[in-house]
Design goal:
By secondary structure, the chain is an alpha/beta fold. The chain is built from 8 helices and 14 strands. The longest helix has 10 residues. It is globular. The N and C termini lie close together (about 5 Å).
Length: about 250
């Protein structure tokens, strides 16, 4: 499996793009503004979009993606998410007021887009690639995803805060090689991190203490303007955290 980072910032500006990852050529994990990095021909190859949660920075390009390539494809793009997340998309995005309902275009029998509910812990098998939803703790219904090639696994936590359930799952994944975990705020904004159910470096360190494996740790979703500060706090934690900042266009092969 090959995962390319299209966007990994907590905001936009300059070369910053919000969360989106391209798995091989046909799968998106979230679809924030990073999708804009893809060409039209690359977008046409997207068959599956796995959504962690409904916040705009993770779904912003789904409507535009479907609109841009729907008529160029011979099958619908499938959106995978928790039932609550799909309901939010139906009600607040694809509602004919914000955007057309592409699950009915050109008709309900042969739409450009379809919904597929995924339960917590459920595994979707795509040609031997196992994609499993894992627990997340955020202000809206959320999941992370474990991507398992059979040789190794990568976990993307999505947006989350203190989350014992996540580490119980991750500690059982024997082939876990990479963890991409958010740290949206600096320690001076810990109160805001707690309120918005994100992590700051001190909370991240407490979470990583719960991990018994030895996967490589990459930090995503850093707030623009504070990226260097946040990473400095992450790597100077008294807990001895070793982590690297996730970068646009970074590629993981596993």
């Amino acid at each position: 499996m090959k995962l390319k980072v299209l966007g990994c910032s907590g905001g936009i500006g300059g070369n910053l793009h919000t969360t989106s990852f391209l798995l091989d050529e046909d799968v998106l994990i979230d679809a924030g503004t990073g999708v804009n990095e893809l060409s039209l021909s690359e977008m046409c190859k997207i068959d599956h979009v796995f959504i962690t949660h409904s916040h705009l920075d993770h779904i912003a390009c789904i409507p535009l993606l479907i609109d841009s390539v729907g008529s160029m494809r011979d099958r619908p793009v499938t959106l995978y998410a928790r039932a609550e997340t799909l309901d939010i998309l139906r009600t607040h995005i694809f509602n004919w007021k914000i955007w057309p309902d592409f699950s009915e275009i050109p008709n309900a029998q042969e739409p450009f887009m379809r919904y597929r509910e995924i339960g917590l812990g459920e595994v979707v098998n795509l040609a031997g690639r196992r994609i499993m939803s894992v627990p997340a703790n955020h202000v809206v219904p959320s999941v992370g995803y474990c991507l398992d090639s059979g040789q190794a696994s990568l976990v993307f936590t999505g947006d989350t805060t203190t989350n014992d359930a996540l580490w119980r799952v991750l500690n059982k994944i024997e082939n876990l090689k990479y963890i991409i975990i958010e740290t949206a705020f600096s320690n001076s904004e810990k109160e805001l991190a707690v309120l918005s159910k994100h992590l700051c470096p001190s909370l991240l360190a407490e979470e990583l203490d719960k991990f018994s494996g030895n996967a490589e740790i990459f930090i995503t979703h850093l707030k623009p303007g504070e990226m260097e500060l946040i990473m400095d706090e992450v790597n100077h934690s008294e807990h001895g955290v070793e982590a690297r900042m996730l970068l646009n266009n970074q590629i993981f092969e596993f």
